[in-house]
Design goal:
- The chain is α+β, with helices and mostly antiparallel strands and 106 residues long.
- The chain has one domain: 2-Layer Sandwich (Alpha-Beta Plaits).
- Helix content is 25%, strand content 26%.
- It is built from two helices and four strands.
- InterPro entries: Dimeric_a/b-barrel.
- This is YCII-related domain-containing protein.
């Protein structure tokens, strides 16, 4: 398994996007699973985590992003920042959330 080069941090604004128990959420979860499988097959997905619904925040919360909560992380291995940004642009929640790309220190 490759070492991660970037972490993709996925956020959403609570109350937006597909809701629990709906066919829309089920459909989105299938898209996430398919995307993870594609990234794994390509050797790009090192690890992925879905986080519990805990929204505790510590430190500076005065930024615009503070209205969004982190719900998942992907550790990926890619050749460049641009490649990581291209992966981030494929995430299925971007209509109601965001993904930030963070290079991992070597």
């Amino acid at each position: 398994m490759a070492n991660p080069t970037h972490v993709l941090v996925h956020r959403y604004t609570p109350g937006t996007g597909p809701q629990e128990g709906t066919t829309e959420l089920d459909a989105e979860m299938r898209v996430w699973a398919e995307l993870d499988a594609q990234l794994r097959k390509a050797g790009q997905l090192v690890e992925g985590w879905a986080l519990s619904d805990a929204t505790a925040t510590f430190g500076n919360t005065g930024t615009a992003a503070s209205s969004q909560v982190v719900f998942a992380l992907h550790a990926v291995a890619v050749d460049s920042d641009e490649a990581a940004q291209q992966l981030a642009a494929r995430m299925p929640h971007l209509d109601y959330g965001s993904t930030t790309v963070h290079p991992v220190m070597s």
